[in-house]
Amino acid sequence: MNWKQLVLGTATVTLLAACASTKPAAVTSNTAPAATANQGVAPADTGSSNQGQLNADPLHDPNSPLSKRSVYFDFDSSTVKSSDKPTVEAHAGYLKDHADRKVIIQGNTDSRGSREYNLGLGQRRAESVKRSLEVLGVKDSQVEAVSLGKEKPKATGNTEADFAENRRADILYNGE
Amino acid sequence: MPGIRTLFKLLLIYFLLAGQSARAEMTIEIVGGGASKHAIAVVPFKDETTRMREALTPIIRSDLELSGVFRMVDGSAIANVPVEPVDIRYPLWQAAGAQSIAIGKVEAVAGGQVKVSFRLMDLAQKKQLTSGEFTVTPDRSREVAHTIADMIYEAITGQKGIFNTRVVYVLKSGRNYMLQVGLITDVDSNRAQTILRSKEPIISPSWSPDGRYLAYVSFESKKPVVWVQDLATGQRRAVANFKGSNSAPAWSPDGSKLAVVLTTTGNSQIYLVNTLGGAPRRISYSDGIDTEPTFTPDGSQIYFVSDRTGGPQIYRMAVSGGAAQRVTWQGNYNVSPRVSPDGRTLTFIRRESGRFRVMAQDLTTGDVRALSDSGYNERPSFAPNGRMVLYASDTGGKSVLYATTLDGSSKVRLAVINGEVQDPSWGPFNNPQ
């Protein structure tokens, strides 16, 4: 799962200084704000779910539409496709019923080119999912749209299938 | 037990070298040549191999070649190894095509130090152009050599040399990201320092105008956040960590502000934040993506990328506000702008038939020319003297750093062996040690 890597990554961020003229950058509390910076996301809850029993949590029930966490986009598009609307509707329903839950939506791109411009394109996709959730009644405070741009491609190949896999926004719940 | 001690020393050296080889290794290689280069002979300095840790003149030659302005005249076949001006047999060097000659020596002085003296002579006029003396410990070969190269460069071109300036880039090695800083002249020799190491992406490093801080974007908290790090102490703090994405930091020339891209309105827009904190002030207004801001050297204007009319194009606006003016009109994808230190030239990346090339646009005439021909290039930045442009290039799955002269006539490749080099940026002149 993606979130395990993400959280592991957060934990292993270290500062390093190799040489005399750059003093060692100690890992101190000044790295803490980053790990907890984003109010929507708490450290990973790897064992028990805060919804109670793991198998009772519809978010992790493979038969529930809530287990689908990715929304896909056409080339050069940030429109949520009709095929992904059931996923968005399921999460909207869940978030309305669980006002304490928050999600972060990470937008991704397949393109080459400017890292920063791709960050903007991924943001556009994440915002599109966010707006879809809000239209369905989810509160703004429950959703944060962010972008990973082209920096974290799920598929690293160069086929059209790889590109399509990367034109994607992922829905992550707090605690994931 | 001298034998064992020697063995131990050898082992130690072996381990030091082994440790270094795991890091980025870069080599300088000239891949293009200009026609009108200054021909210089750099004669080996007397006793440089025995009295310095590393011989000086190979470093000086390599530096001067990197600049794209000099052509080295090989003196190895010339029966004249001058140490003082009186030793120079001028006709021999002129016959070899040299316009100037650098000579020097290394002498032992008290306290284990050495005195390095050098002179640069004009061969036609038999006149000294510059000279210098440095009393140092023998281990400071590179520092002294880069300083001598700077002096020679300035004496010949009238411009400040860049051989002691630094570059920053992100080295991606497997799934590790390292933010590294090194001298432009030493990224070839394992001397880069790792400033930040992360399992998550790091992008868009940006130098403070005084060279003391780096701003960058780190994804360590599941989203892009802008950090500023003090290079001397390693201390760092998040300067833009608002809801949504935070990215594309660029320092104002006075160092007091950062232009950043925030998404609090639901789209990527440009804001100014005080580097000491405070509320961000929005300065760009569009329904599209506005990103990659960069200040003009006088601090009055910002160049940036916007797709408000379709594809990404470069625009300019006053920092104080007002309408933005479009600057690029050819091509449908122009990104990553930077303005030259004299404010006259814009460099950027244009996508054109599958290629991403480094371009240079004359801001007075509007003329555009390509500085790179092929492959996939990213994030050009000017040398602080404005004479070269640094960029990353991905050719055949391998990424390397290039430095090109502003007319594109001479390119230097700083090859990377392990990993991908991303998002380079050439630092300012100031280099506090």
Summarize this structure as a short list of keywords or feature phrases.
heterodimer; A: about 180 residues; alpha+beta; 60s Ribosomal Protein L30, Chain: A; 4-stranded mixed sheet; 5 helices; B: about 425 residues; mainly beta; Rossmann fold; Neuraminidase; 2 domains; 5-stranded antiparallel sheet; 5-stranded mixed sheet; disordered N terminus
Structural class of chain A: alpha+beta
In the predicted model, the low-confidence regions of chain A spanning at least 5 consecutive residues are 1-55
Could you state the CATH homologous superfamily of chain A? Answer: OmpA-like domain
Residue share in β-strands of chain B? 35-45%
Average residue-wise pLDDT of chain B: 90
Number of self-contained structural domains of chain B = 2
Looking at the overall shape, the CATH architecture of chain A is: 2-Layer Sandwich
Characterize the largest beta sheet of chain B: strand count, sense, and whether it forms a barrel. Answer: 5 strands, antiparallel
* Overall 3D form of chain B: elongated
The most extensive interface, with participating residues per chain, is: A-B, 54 and 61 residues
Given as residue ranges, the uncertain stretches of chain B (5+ residues, pLDDT < 50) are: 1-26
- From the 3D structure, determine the CATH topology of the largest domain in chain B: Neuraminidase
Largest sheet descriptor of chain A: 4 strands, mixed
H/I helix tally of chain A: 5
Number of helices of chain B: 5
Shape of chain A: globular
Oligomeric form of this entry?
Answer: heterodimer
The strands making up the biggest β-sheet of chain A line up spatially as 1-4-2-3
What is the C-alpha radius of gyration of chain B, as a whole number of Å?
24 Å
